[in-house]
């Protein structure tokens, strides 16, 4: 069950605040009964009519995509570039979905897409501390002291990052590069790139391999799959 104004907003009737005004004005009917109370809750099988027109409510869908390089993490792009939603809609997925959070244009890896606004907002809220693991190829030979700095936190734009986990995967002394695994639970813009830049090792390539309990096993770049019911429940149970 969810609040009536939320169901209306998710169906594209109006914003949640505008939907509340429609309810208070007596413009909304649920299962044949006019509703004017904002606390009213509805289920997926309830019929909602606004200004005499039944609204079309979508079932919630959840997809996991292995984002390729050079794709925008957005539902639309003003410059006409390919987006993560374009990839999924090409496979005849009709629901209006949007990405949960963002990956940079040149960053690859796991990203979730859904039309479940409540879950998306929850996963992006800092208090839930959803862990995300990245593999970064960086310039230079990274030192243990620098990995420790990343774990303890570095200052970006006047704010210190929260504790992180690091693992050195490989060092290429000939090419003077390092491969590092970094796990964080924040979501600032360009955070991983800025963290490595702060310790003197600009990122060359970046890939996100896990998001909370989810991983990309079996998915090639550009491929996606629907989440299993138990995976969705794991995300919803996040506290």
Automatic annotation (TrEMBL):
User: Which GO BP terms apply?
Assistant: enzyme-directed rRNA pseudouridine synthesis
What is the superkingdom listed in this entry's lineage?
Bacteria
SMART domains in the record, alphabetically? S4
Q: Which InterPro entries match?
A: PsdUridine_s_RsuA/RluB/E/F_cat, PsdUridine_synth_cat_dom_sf, PsdUridine_synth_RsuA/RluA, PsdUridine_synth_RsuA/RluB/E/F, PsdUridine_synth_RsuA/RluB_CS, RsuA_PseudoU_synthase, S4_RNA-bd, S4_RNA-bd_sf
Keywords of this protein's UniProt record, alphabetized? Isomerase, RNA-binding
Instruction: Indicate the transmembrane segments per the record.
Output: none
**A GO cellular component entry from the record:** cytosol
Q: Name one GO molecular function term.
A: RNA binding
Enzyme class, one word?
A: isomerase
Q: Which SUPFAM superfamilies match?
A: Alpha-L RNA-binding motif, Pseudouridine synthase
Its EC number(s): 5.4.99.-
Domain RNA-binding S4 spans what residues? 2-60
Family of the protein in this entry: Belongs to the pseudouridine synthase RsuA family.
PANTHER family referenced in this protein's UniProt entry, alphabetically: PSEUDOURIDINE SYNTHASE FAMILY PROTEIN-RELATED, RNA-BINDING S4 DOMAIN-CONTAINING PROTEIN
Write the protein's name. Answer: Pseudouridine synthase
Tell me the organism: Limosilactobacillus rudii
